[in-house]
Amino acid sequence: MAKKIRGSGLRHTLPYVLRFAGLWLVVTVAAIVVASVSSYMVFAQRGSEAEAAHLRTVVTIQAVLSILAVIALAVFTTHRLAGPWIAVRRALDRVRYGDFDSGLRLRATDPRIKEVELAFAQMLDSLRQRQRAATPTIGAERLPAPSDAAPLRSHEV
User: Fold this and answer.
1) Over its length of 157 residues, how does the chain's per-residue pLDDT go in tens digits?
2) Second label for 98, Cα 20 to 30 Å away, from 41, 45, 138, 145?
3) pTM for this structure?
């Protein structure tokens, strides 16, 4: 069997981060900014200018680190949720273009996703059998399937 499409890779899921986690990201980042600004405003009034400057630095670092953590969590969550379905879509695209030899390998940790992988493998076996049955034979040799033949170009006609 040819190469199995395994997972999706982070490069395939990054475009989906805003689609799947965009609103969650915006709301969470806004909440962090509001909490940081309000904390600074409350505590800055209680101390001297030097203490306020120190507090401003601490709150800014805290807010930036929290926002980075939220972005990392959004990327990780999107990768874990959307990744298998992106891999399925990529594998279906290969089948659509006539590649019945590429399999699909997904995470082993989720039994529901493994059911999808098994169903995909069964679908590929069924398509291969149908293709073999539809391919005409001469003697003991099979003729190449129409999808295997070289495409005609307009200048070759």
Assistant:
1) 455 555 556 677 777 777 778 888 899 999 999 999 998 888 888 888 888 889 999 999 999 999 999 999 988 888 887 778 888 888 888 888 888 887 787 776 777 788 888 888 899 999 888 888 887 766 556 555 555 444 444 444 4
2) 138
3) 0.57
**Neighbouring-strand partners of residue 104:** 5
Strands (E), the chain: 5-6, 104-105, 137-138, 141-142
Q: How far apart are CA 132 and CA 147, in angstroms?
A: 12
State the residue range of the domain holding 127: 5-134
In a domain, 141, yes or no: no
128 assigned to some structural domain: yes
Residue 155 counted as domain residue? no
**What tokens were used for 75?**
């990327």
